[in-house]
Amino acid sequence: DNLLRKRADLFGKYVSAEIKGAIVAQGFTQTGVAKGINRQGANLSRWLGGKPTIPIEVALEVCNYIGVDLQKIVNRAQQRVEDELGPWPPITVNPDALIMEKVRRGDMSLAANYDPDKEAERDYYPDAGA
User: Fold this and answer.
1) What confidence score (pLDDT) does residue 9 get?
2) How far is 80 from 99, CA to CA, in rounded Å?
3) Other CB atoms within 10 Å distance of the CB of residue 54
4) pLDDT value of position 68
5) Cα–Cα distance between 90 and 2 in angstroms, integer?
6) Are 13 and 46 in contact (CB under 8 A)?
7) CA 120, CA 58: separation in Å to the nearest integer?
8) SS (H, E, C) the chain
9) What is the distance between the alpha carbons of residues 32 and 23, in angstroms, rounded to a whole number?
10) Measured between alpha carbons, how far is 4 from 10 in angstroms, rounded to an integer?
11) 25-84 residue pLDDT tens
12) How many CA atoms lie within 13 A of 9 on its CB side?
């Protein structure tokens, strides 16, 4: 599915970007981290650029080395994907069912209910929200 692939690719790029930012925020350099985890600097640079996606074991090595929780990196990357592409699975709501559920609960927040006479209407039609 193209949408799944797009989300996964974007997630990988955001994980790399979050790790790259964490390296700087923790006061390290990419070169220093590469040496510290015994990896080639060019490889780490490519991974942190998102091409190709950083292997999960390398992501963990980097995070452990710089003192950052990988789970927080992953959570931030996931949130960025959701902010950009929406939640997964995509929310599909029948608007009529959503509106009727609000009415059944007595929710008066619907745009059509922003009326100065809404209380009078509710008193006049007491069974409308039942």
Assistant:
1) 94
2) 30
3) 23
4) 98
5) 14
6) no
7) 65
8) CHHHHHHHHHHHHHHHHHHHHHHHHCCCCHHHHHHHCCCCHHHHHHHHCCCCCCCHHHHHHHHHHHCCCHHHHHHHHHHHHHHHHCCCCCCCCCHHHHHHHHHHCCCCCCHHHCCCCHHHHHHHCCCCCC
9) 10
10) 10
11) 999 999 999 999 999 999 999 999 988 999 999 999 999 999 999 999 999 999 999 999
12) 7
- Other CB atoms within 10 Å distance of the CB of residue 19: 24
119 token code pair? 């209380």
What is the amino acid identity at position 19? Answer: I
- From CA 71, how far away is CA 32, in angstroms rounded? 23
* Token duo for residue 56: 């999960």
